[in-house]
Write a structure and sequence with these properties.
Number of strands: 13
Largest sheet: 7 strands, mixed
Strand order of the largest sheet: 1-7-6-5-4-2-3
Helix content: 25-40%
Shape: globular
CATH superfamily of the largest domain: Type I PLP-dependent aspartate aminotransferase-like (Major domain)
Order of helices and strands: HHHHEHEHEHEHEHEEEEHEEHEEH
Number of domains: 3
CATH architecture of the largest domain: 3-Layer(aba) Sandwich
Number of helices: 12
CATH class of the largest domain: Alpha Beta
Structural class: alpha/beta
Bound molecules: pyridoxal-5'-phosphate
Distance between the termini: 34 Å
Radius of gyration: 24 Å
């Protein structure tokens, strides 16, 4: 495709960028070089149109880090995580983080609990799912039984990574639908979907849709009873993408982790409530027995070999270093303080939203610092998609979406409160939402819907 040669692309100084009319090259690598400052300015300016990450109430991912952590990240982006031999201390920090997480999640013997860092919970979910699939295959083979029809059982509210896992690795997804005011898995229904081909049940801490924790302990107990009745021994993987860094600090009495014998592996996102910038995730297995040997590759490490399990190869060391910094810097008390503050802000904000009048809370940030709310049923002239669009005018990104089966009738907005979102900023959000209400209330009918609107969704 022909591309117009632009004056701007050839600008010699930063000042020229603003003095000459032209367009940056877009679809084809330009023929000539340009001054780095000019290139920087062009790219920097274009990025002004991205949303402001700090106003992004949609994402679970960290949008603020301490300057010291940022400095460490800048110092380590050139270290390749996979080169364990060249960067042994980065590798060592990864191992320490895994040990710390094994302890935090009550592995029976944390020094024997294998794990690894990943690019996020999605990759970690693939690894956890693969390990369960391989263990199921090994057991079936040993018993002389077929291995062609594996399935995985989960709530319909699972994050898309589990649908990906099922599709990419040829595992049949079996999902428990929502019902009434239950927006996540039901232990009995999950157990009823299990059979001899079930590689495992996924329980979520907490749900992406509404921030609620799934009842992991009840799921485990129900599967215990299933085993007593039928002999089926179904393992549980906990997708603690967000909750893995919240529950241990704020809800230590909830036994969702390796304290449950049936929990074989746990993933969490370091870049969510682990408080690291994107992208780092973690997975830890209960013990070596639950990570099949044949999935592990050996890489050089200080002239020795080190086991790795990952889908990717090269990756910057920065996020792992920043995770270790956070653990050392914040300790248990720091994490507890930050997560408690986030949950306090979320609960206060939820109450403020409720007080505005047109909204009804679906959840109240009692688990994750996350809540979902809907427009009251008797209001028919505007909907959640209109509200999402309205607050976007001031830069707030609040997703609006419908729930999956059997609650497709329910459309909500969701707010994720995380580090950097203060009571003050929450006050600004409420003021903006309130300011939009008279206009929304004057509307004759909804302008937007889940399919056609310009509004932001997630
Ligand atoms: C429960 C759950 N699992 C998995 C993921 C995917 O996480 P990541 O973005 O770290 O890949 C998310 C992301 O929101 C999530 O909420």
């Amino acid at each position: 495709m022909a591309v117009k040669k632009t004056k701007r692309a050839g600008a010699a100084s930063v000042g020229d960028v603003f003095a000459e009319v032209g367009r940056a090259p877009r679809r084809r690598i330009p023929d000539d070089e340009m001054d780095p400052e000019v290139a920087y300015q062009i790219v920097h300016d274009e990025l002004m149109l991205d949303g402001n990450a700090r106003l992004n109430l949609a994402t679970f991912v960290s949008t603020w880090m301490e300057p010291q952590a940022q400095r460490l990240m800048a110092e380590t982006f050139d270290k390749n995580m996979i080169n364990k031999d060249e960067y042994p201390q980065t590798a060592e920090m990864e191992m320490r983080c895994i040990d710390m997480l094994g302890r935090l999640w009550h592995a029976p013997d944390p020094d024997d609990a294998p794990g690894c860092s990943t690019t996020g919970s999605s990759e970690a979910a693939m690894l956890g799912g693969l390990a369960m699939k391989r263990r199921w295959q090994d057991a079936r083979r040993a018993a002389g039984k077929p291995i062609d029809r594996p399935n995985i059982v989960m709530g319909i509210n699972v994050q898309v990574c589990w649908e990906k896992f099922a599709r990419y690795w040829d595992v049949e997804p079996r999902t428990v639908p929502m019902e009434g005011d239950r927006f996540h898995i039901d232990p009995d229904e999950a157990a009823a979907l299990c059979d001899e081909n079930t590689i495992g049940v996924v329980a979520i801490l907490g749900s992406t849709y509404d921030g609620s924790y799934e009842p992991v302990a009840k799921v485990c107990r129900t599967l215990d009873r299933l085993q007593e009745r039928t002999g089926l021994d179904v393992p549980v993987h906990v997708d603690a993408a967000s909750g893995g860094f919240v529950a241990p600090f704020l809800d230590p009495d909830i036994e969702w982790d390796f304290r449950q014998d049936r929990v074989v592996s746990i993933n969490a996102s370091g870049h969510k409530y682990g408080l690291v910038a994107p992208g780092v995730g973690w997975i830890v297995w209960r013990d070596e027995e639950h990570l099949p040997e044949e999935l592990i590759f050996q890489v050089n490490y200080l002239g020795d070999v080190m086991p790795t399990f990952a889908l990717n190869f090269s990756r910057p060391g920065s996020q792992v270093v920043a995770q270790y910094y956070n653990f050392v810097r914040l300790g248990f008390a720091g994490y507890r303080r930050i997560q408690q503050y986030a949950r306090d802000v979320a609960q206060d904000l939820a109450r403020e939203v409720e007080r505005l009048g047109p909204f009804e809370l679906v959840t109240r940030a009692e688990d994750l610092p996350v809540f979902a709310f809907k427009v009251r049923d008797d209001i028919t002239n505007f909907n959640v998609f209109d509200v999402s669009d309205a607050v976007r005018e001031r830069g707030w990104q609040v997703p609006a979406y419908t729930f999956p089966a059997n609650r497709e009738d329910l459309a909500v907005l969701r707010v994720v409160v995380k580090r950097g979102f203060t009571h003050d900023v929450a006050g600004l959000f409420i003021a903006d939402l309130k300011r939009q209400l008279p206009r929304l209330e004057r509307q004759a009918e909804p302008h937007d819907d889940a399919e056609h609107g310009a509004g932001f969704r997630h």
